[in-house]
Structures are given as structure tokens and as C-alpha cells.
Amino acid sequence: MRTSRRDTFSRRFMFSGLGRRLAPLVWTTVVVAMMAALLAPRDTDPGLSQLSLTVSDFAALDRGGPIETAMASLGVVSLLLLVVARKRLAAIRGLPSVLLAIWGAGLVLAAVAPTDPLTTQLTGSAYVHRYASVAAFAALPTAGLVLAGRLNSTAGRTSWWLRTLSLLAVVGAGVMAYSAGPGGRELIGLVERLMLGCEVIMVGVLGRYVQGLVPGTGGIEGVPESGPQVTH
User: Which pLDDT belongs to residue 5?
Assistant: First the structure.
């Protein structure tokens, strides 16, 4: 029994430590991912346009470079965030958890599976990359909208940020889909980067909120330690 209690205490201590460092870890990864998406293409080929080429287009030209590394890191950190959030936030359990898991796993898979550089002839790996990316970037704003509805007024401005960023990401996805088809890829790179910005910032907002629910971090005013209850 003593060993069992010691192991339980060790797990709680490690979990609490991760919770207290959660927001800085998430926001650091968010900033790195955004910098990679915006700045790394300049090193790949300064002559290529970030307005008409997607992040995946640039990543395909620099396999294992900063873009893929940053996106894989963001996926892993998002999964860590989900593990902590499920312990502290009742509203995230169920559908939001599934969608956040798809987001995190999708990013990792898309980073690992290479796409084809600047070509319409896609290999099997490129199809895996495409559908993993689509699943990830569709899952996160959906999770944000569901979670914002469940938290409602109990989370204050966090609900507003989640809802607003999710809606902007959905609009961006629609514009990007049009650009990829009838729009002839006009400004597809710009639209994608704006959509990505909304989604990664959403992860940072959620990370900051969840960190506030961990004991010893100051808490969030009006929210009990066990987290707000699910509202319908």
C-alpha cells in the first residue's frame, strides 16, 4: 500500500508540474509554429511567393525543416494539453476531446507523411498528408465552437475568444477551399496563414485557461478547481 500511495503521489506531482508549465509551453510552441510558417519559406527559396503557395508547398521543398518540426511539436503539445484539460475541465470531455485528439494527431501525421512539391500528381504519402491536414484544421474550430458553447459565461472572455477564432478559421477554410478550386489558388497562401494563425492562437487561449484551473497557479475567478460544469 505504501508503494501504491507513493506512486500515486509521484503521478500527481508530475501532473501538477506539467499543469503549472502548461501555458508557457503552449504559447512558446504557438509562437515557434507561427514564425516557422511565416519566416522559414524565405530560407527555402526567397523567389517563391507566400501569397500563392501553401505552408505544405514550402514544407515539401525542405523535408524535416523548421515547418514540419514546428507543426509536429504543436501537435504533441496539443495532445499534452488535452491530457491535462481532461483532468481539470469537465466541459472538454466527450466530443471536444475527440476533436482535439484529431487535431493533435493530424498535425503529427501530416508532419511525418511528406507531400509532393508543387505538383498535382500526388503519391500515397501526399494523400495521407492532405487528409490528415484537412481533418486537423477542420477538427479544431469545431472543438472550439462546441467548447465555447459548453463553457458559455463561466469562462468569461475565453469563450468569446474560442468562438471568435473558431468562426474566423471556418470562414478562412471556406475561402481557402474556393481559392483551391474556382479561385485558381489566388492568394491561397495568405488565406491559409491567416486561418492557421487563428487556430494556433486558439490552442494558446485554451492552454492559458486550463493552466488557471490547476491548483497553485492562482486559479480563475468564479471557476471552481474541478472546472466548470458542462452546460447545454
Answer: 53
Nearest to 99 by CA among 29, 58, 153, 147: 147
At residue 121, the pLDDT reads 74
Q: How far apart are CA 50 and CA 69, in angstroms?
A: 19
pLDDT at 6: 47
Q: Model pTM?
A: 0.80
Are 86 and 93 a contacting pair, CB within 8 Å? yes
Cβ 113 vs Cβ 125: under 8 Å: yes
Q: Is 97 exposed, middle or buried (0-12, 13-18, 19+ CB in 10 A)?
A: middle
Q: What are the respective helix, strand and coil percentages of the chain, to the nearest 5?
A: 75, 0, 25
Residue with cell 493530424: 106
- Cell numbers placing 100: 482535439
Mean pLDDT of the chain: 81
What is the spatial distance between Cα 212 and Cα 208, in angstroms, rounded to a whole number?
6
Q: What is the mean pLDDT of residues 96-116?
A: 92
